[in-house]
Amino acid sequence: MRTGRTATRTATAVAAALALSLTAACSGDGGDDGGGASDKHTVKLPDLSGEKIQVAAVWTGPEEENFRKVLDEFESRTGAEVEFVPTGDNVATFLGSKIGGGAPPDVAMLPQVGVLRQFAEKKWLKPLPAAAKQQLNKNFSKGWQDLGAHDGTQYGVYFKAANKSLMWYNTAAYAAAGVGEAKTWDAYLKDLETISDSGVEPVSVGGADGWTLTDWFENIYLSQAGPEKYDQLAAHEIKWTDPSVKRALTTLGQLFGNDLLLSGGNEGALQTPFPESVTKTFADFDAPEAAVVFEADFVGVNVTNDTKAEIGEDVKVFPFPRVGAKEPVVTGGDVAVGLKDGKAAQAMLTFLASTDAAAVMAEQGGFISPNKELDRANYPNDVQREIAKALTDAGDDFRFDMSDQAPAAFGGTKGEGEWKALQDFLKNPDDVAGAQRALEASAAKAFEN
């Protein structure tokens, strides 16, 4: 999900934090300072008594409340006064106006890597201080470090991540059909046919929100075409009329072209928004409208907030089935950047790069960290631990959401660009060539090449 995409997706999904009891203390932060931390800090923070700092992010509701616990921990340990500034969905516009007016927040969370690059080129970002880079080198793989850099300068720390390569399934529906967790795309399709024969419509697709369709395509394309091609397509170094795109759309069409495999058929999928795609699968266990829904780790929040299903019992997760040699790992995330120089901003970025801050947030649920040194015992349930493990175990083998790397006109605008072209493809999955032409025309215009 971006903001408007990741954040719109995440904000929708994170309507409530996972209401599950905590099972472990944090690994990194300090006992007397609160925040649910353990007895040992992993990073030293300066005395900032009397200083004020603003931190901006798109988050609202329970996600904001959980992040405020991180900010409270920072206040407790430094003596600084921290103000949380909500940006609204259009983060770039909000921050651009603040910067233009000479009053930017000290630190901001950016949900799009493209915005980081844009801000860096405009000289709006401050390079990470040495202490933050030390934490970054210690706690993050090179892939996550590279996402926070531009033209050789490190600007950002990826505090929050999303694992966008997950199948969430109704355990009762799967058991009734006698199917399991498919490892390959072909096995997945066969299982869906078996589920359909059992009397349950197999897959719930939230096609009314075009971003969900980009995630379907990206997982297939990454697994099938490989990371090098993925990077080239993400940067529009190859065209959407490339044979690799044809192959991926044809593969996706094996699902979208079989009306019996989609809950409500193709028309029903096009009319289903993302939150409803989750409730269709888990709200009614006596008569589910679907057996499985694909999307990121934030599905778990919708399950907990909007249904009575229990994650780990009624609801389980398996990785997106591999189409090629490897299971894909597609991610999204929010990167912390400095918009002001100063001791307080530098200390906040250093804190956010540490396991201390990640542990405070992880305890609350509804959060995945790309921090590889974070003890997974801090997550409140086994499902989240497995999701986090898949993300960090991927090392540098993951790829960031392709649509979140594109100009918004192509990858993040409702009713336009990639969203519209893939919705049209869902409506008419036989027209692979037409979808390619529409995607390329829109991409060429947005990338101006």
TrEMBL record:
Segment forming the signal sequence: 1-27
Lineage start: Bacteria, Bacillati, Actinomycetota, Actinomycetes, Kitasatosporales
Transmembrane segments: none
Family designation: Belongs to the bacterial solute-binding protein 1 family.
InterPro entries in the cross-refs: Bact_solute-bd_prot1 (IPR050490), SBP (IPR006059)
Protein keywords: Signal, Transport
Listed name of the protein: Carbohydrate ABC transporter substrate-binding protein
